[in-house]
Request: fold
Amino acid sequence: MEHATTLDHTEDVYEPSLTPDSLGKLGMWVFLVGDTMSFGALLAAYAALRAGAGIVGWVPPSEILGINLTAFMTFLLICSSVTMVKALESIQNGNVSRMCTFLGLTIAGGVIFLGLQAYEWYHLITHGLTLTGIPDHGLSGAAISGSTLFGPTFYAITGFHGLHVTGGVIYLAVILIHGLRGRYTAEFNHEVEIVGLYWHFVDLIWIMVFTFIYLL
Amino acid sequence: MAQDGHKEHPKYMNIFWWLLGLTIVEVAIAIPDYNVILKGILLVGLACSKAILVANYFMHLKFEKKTLAIIVVTPFLICVLLVFALMPDLTSVDRLDGIEKPAEVVDTSAH
Reply:
């Protein structure tokens, strides 16, 4: 009797694994935690440079960047996150064709986002926002000298995010091909969930980038 | 919940409308000119709310084990600490500026 009590106690002490249904999911979470630190370091550096420049020494980004376009890009990524969860929901209900449709829509959202970002970069570069300079809006000398750091930080952060979107689109395309070949079922769909985690992370980071770089 | 394979799905469209609404509020708050600190607090608060919605419902973090949630939240806290850790560097830049200026004055008087 005593022995049985001890065994029960032991079972209570041991914590079950974090994600017993998929070690791949745990792996993706660990990767995302590391990636959060990369983006966190970039955004912290941006915040520090901006705080160091002061209010006079930093041009409000809204005077250089187009908020309407990037607000639409944010909307697009939110939509693609919804289509991603709908794809997962579909395959968990055993509907492969619906999953493939939603995965296709998610990929389309990512591709349009990248196209808009390329357009934005082209527009900004042709209007003078480069790695060493900013567009001339009749700024004072202090604002121009401080804001020369805006270009490099802007392109580094949005470019790093854009690379993640590119990687996500490729990753989603691979999962879609697997889906079309009938790899996933209602019982086996962890890979769809894992790519979903990555895609939602890309969306989450953009929410932060949009606020810190474009709105503040 | 994680073991159940997410049989009970959250209402994703509700989350979508919340995210859309918060984005519209963000843009509306960002456009007018007023107190920078107040604007910053409001915008960062809204962005964090959106991020929590995405993580909790789209990434299903709310339905995972608490240990995983603690692991995921840790880097965000470290990132906030990182901003404060960089503050002394900014102060040192100010100090350097202060040192350089008298040196220039000395050079000018020598010529």
